[in-house]
Known about the structure:
- By secondary structure, the chain is an alpha+beta fold.
- The protein has helices at residues 5-22, 26-45, 49-76, 165-184, 187-198, 206-214, 224-239, 245-262, 267-284, 291-305, 313-331, 340-367, 374-397, 402-427, 440-468; strands spanning 85-92, 97-98, 103-109, 114-120, 130-142, 145-152, 158-161, 369-371, 433-435.
- It folds into three domains: 2-75, no CATH class; 82-163, CATH 2.40.50.140; 171-438, no CATH class.
- The protein has a five-stranded mixed beta barrel.
- Helix 5 (187-198) packs across helix 14 (402-427), helix 6 crosses helix 14 and helix 8 packs antiparallel against helix 9 (267-284).
- It is globular.
Amino acid sequence: MAGLLNFWLFLIFALGITFGFRFPHPLLFIIFSLVSLVLIYFFYKRKNFFCSDICILLLFFFLGGLWVIPQAKRSQAIDTYVGREGVWPLKTISLPLKKSTGNTFYAVILPFNKKVYVRDYTRSLEYLYSYKVTGKFSRRNYQDRDFYTFWVKKGAVIRRLPSPFWDRYARKTINYLLGVFKNNLKPQGYRFLASVLLGRREVLEDEKQILTNAGVAHLLALSGLHLGFISLMLFFTLRLFYLPFRKCLIISVLFLLVYTFLTGMAQSTLRAALMCSFFSAGFFAKRRVNLLNSLGLAGLCALIMNPLALFEVGFQLSYLAVFALIVWFKMFPIKAFANRLLGYVWGLFSCSFCVTLFLTPLISYYFGRIYLLSVFYNLVLIPFFTLLLTIGFLLIIFSALGFIAQSIGAILSLGISWFISLTEALGSFRLSYFEYRFSFYMVWVYYLGLIIGLISIRRHLFKDKFRKG
Length: 469
């Protein structure tokens, strides 16, 4: 257990959050936390390290429950005000979209730290500004999850609040990049690049459904693919100026952290940025980095920052996907191929197959679909998508040079159009997916069967290897 301490602490802390959310009794969690501390000291003094480690896990379980209770009560307090008009401070976190009668966007209601959908009939609320607004909450329940809408009617009293430095910087930077995309790309290209580079998926129209039908909507989520590509691009660009290796690494990590905040700190982005930071820290400390420990530490940090993130679909899918990749390639390492292209294709297929195998029940449970052919679609679409990302960064780099930027934009617009058309054609096949929703218990049965199956296969392979050896 000691070799994977961070990972176990993450799992136990997450389990504690789940229990604390369901059974919000802070006094019990405080008492059991204190008892765990006493037991840790007791067993440690007697050099019974196994029992002390178990008590450490118990301590993190109770701390997880204790940590989430005030956050959950704060978030759930919004129910008291549903249907009642009031004045609320909020911060807009998505680009306002113009509808026939008003604007729509997402905002965080600051007293509750709650994300809500806003219908603004005044058309006066802008992106990344904070306001005090008169409005009314409504609530709807879908698949046992509550969703809230904040209604701002015409003539509502609105007062803009002072913006902190970071919001002003983020707003200025994002508006500049959106302007670059809008001035040099066709509308479809603008929407696509704003989504995949800035996380502004609200601007997408038919493109989102097209990628969803093909089972490759994960390309729209800012994640390890995007951040890994960005950090490598920046790192090798800095190396062209003969900067020392360590300085290039530090600058790349700092840029990733800034980029994560700039794009709204989505869970997949935050996880990738934290893991990259821990890898870099391990490099500087000249220590071998354990992948599962890095994943666990990233998850622990994310849950400390926002324990309610555990219940978000994006958090669950992001961390489970990375866990699947780590465990899969630990159990079934890829052998070297004489042909590099064949090795690349096999590696990409293995990644896609592994992630699909692990995520299928969750995707079915939340979205009611099972994708059959996305494993094969990824072999074509991911390399194409990576090429588009490369050209997209070239557009940003040369944005100040009008003619060059226009030329790159024309090529990129054409490439994005081809990419969307290809994705639409692939997603239109009848066997691309079928509608089916896993029940909660089916999800657990699936994962139990998957664990037993993988362990059995691994043991069988180990026995064959032992006999041959």
